[in-house]
Amino acid sequence: MSSIIIALIVVGVVLVLAIGFIVATYNGLVTLRNRVEEAWSDITVQLKRRTDLIPNLVNSVKGYATHEKEVFEKVTEARSAIMDAKGVKDTAEAENMLEGALKSLFAVAEAYPDLKANQNFMQLQQELVDTEDKIQASRRFYNGGVRDLNTKIQTFPANIVAGMFNFQAKEFFEVEDRASVENPVEVKF
């Protein structure tokens, strides 16, 4: 009879440890997933801030460079793509498009010394640079969270718990397209 009690105690301890492991792993996965979602929210806030700055920036440049219609259209189109983007991949593609359009816009601004000296334009440009820095910081935070979550989901034995509760790996937010880095934006006057 004492061997049955010992066996039951051993089974009970193993069962408690297994349940404890599952609960701890599940809670860790939920925490990581929430951090990734929070980081994505931070990115979307900064992207919204930037899209709100762009019309003012375009209008400042338009006053000086009225014949640069194609550049303004590309910036407007890229801004719309950011606002309509759904998910990480679409947002990253729209980011690439906007980055190229803004490079063209600033290249146009370089051709107009009065515009470069305009206080409003300089302030908008500085706010945009500040926002870009915040977007980069948010992107790094998001990608760090994605890395941690994906690592936990893919490593043993946490991958068993992740599979049981249908945790999915998240996509990294990678903006730079190698082709756009190697081939700078061409601006024609």
Structure in a nutshell:
The chain has 189 residues and is mostly helical.
Unreliable residue stretches: 178-189
The class by helix and strand makeup works out as mainly alpha
| Overall pLDDT | 86
Count of DSSP helices?
Answer: 7
Roughly how many Å is the radius of gyration? Answer: 25 Å
What is the CATH superfamily? LemA-like domain
What is the overall silhouette? rod-shaped
Cα-to-Cα separation, first versus last residue: 95 Å
Query: Helical amount among residues, as a percent range?
Result: over 70%
CATH architectural arrangement: Up-down Bundle
Number of strands: 0
Proportion of beta-strand residues = under 5%
Q: Tell me which oligomeric state these chains represent.
A: single chain
Order of helices and strands: HHHHHHH
* Biggest sheet character: none
CATH class: Mainly Alpha
Give the number of domains: 1
The CATH topology assignment is de novo design (two linked rop proteins)
How are the SSEs ordered, and which strands pair?
Blueprint: H1 2-62, H2 69-84, H3 87-110, H4 113-117, H5 119-154, H6 158-164, H7 178-182
Quickly list its features.
189 residues, mainly alpha, de novo design (two linked rop proteins), 7 helices, disordered C terminus
Question: Please, could you describe this protein's structure?
Answer:
The protein has 189 residues and is mostly helical. It has one domain: LemA-like domain (de novo design (two linked rop proteins)), CATH 1.20.1440.20. Helices cover 81% and strands 0% of the residues. α1 packs antiparallel against α5. It starts with a helix and ends in a 7-residue tail after the last helix. Keywords: Membrane, Transmembrane, Transmembrane helix. This is LemA family protein. Belongs to the LemA family. InterPro entries: LemA-like_dom_sf (IPR023353), MamQ_LemA (IPR007156).
